[in-house]
Amino acid sequence: MNKFTIKDLENLSGIKAHTIRIWEQRYAFLKPQRTPTNIRYYTNEELKKILNVSLLNKYGFKISHISRMDDADLRSKILSLGGPEAQQERIIHDLIQYMVDLDLVAFERELDHCIQLRGVEKTILQYIFPFLERIGILWLTGHINPAQEHLITNLIRQKIIVGIEQIKSVFSTGKSMLLFLPENEHHELGLLVLHFLLKSRGVSVIYLGANVPVSDLEYTLKVKKPDFVYTHLTTVVKEFNFERFLNHLKVKVAGTPVYISGGVVSTYEHKAPGGDIHFLKTFKAVQEFITQISS
């Protein structure tokens, strides 16, 4: 069983922490537990409940009405929601729930259904990347069991790699991008998503992969001379010093634009150091960047 904080529930559901506390006081659908030191936490069941409640509340159901629904009623109302945005959020919420339950069969079935209906690219853009954005904060805080993380990420990884291999580019932008993750960063999914999106738009990809020493990055830059360098930092070990990493990049990659996205950047309180280094703090910013360099 996972132990989620009220901040985790806020990040995953979009409902502000103070609103969640008010709902706890007025309604009975949330029942937080307490640690021996009296710290409030929420279980898998509370997380799944708040995801369902938040979705119905966002699309017009009053919280007083939702609070009287049993689980079957909740699910029935959620499935009846119309509109592409509501359906997209429902699927993302379902993927989160399957992850915390370690229901790999349901998780893969949902992904395969999306790919069959919408293709790999739309599945990545509309479901996988938003899903990764939501749960990335849990990896950052350690509130997801490593087994849950590894099993789910390996499953998604397989789908994306198959998608990359199946791309048959009929045009080239003439631009090249080097993708890498620094030492001690092994969360490769965000980088693989970028690989797929760039390759499908005619950008030549030099894929170094995860856990790359700066010396290897520097050598590859000298040999391949890419137009851009990109890294996606989901979470890193405690020993990783982000500011030192940025300083190394400024020296070793001078003259080549470097773009950084991911959970580490989105929670970083300072601006990019300038020069050749740029932050992409949201998925929208990532999409705009890809559109810009592939046009």
List the keywords.
295 residues, alpha/beta, 2 domains, 5-stranded parallel sheet, two-stranded antiparallel ribbon, 13 helices, 11% strand
Describe this structure in words.
The protein is globular, with a radius of gyration of 21 Å. The chain is α/β, with parallel strands linked by helices. The chain contains 13 helices and seven strands. The longest helix is centred in the middle third of the chain and has 38 residues, at 104-141. It starts with 5 loop residues before the first helix and ends with a helix. It has a five-stranded parallel sheet with strand order 4-3-5-6-7, sandwiched between helices. The mean pLDDT is 89. Helix 12 links the parallel strand 6 (258-261) and strand 7. It is 59% helix and 11% strand.
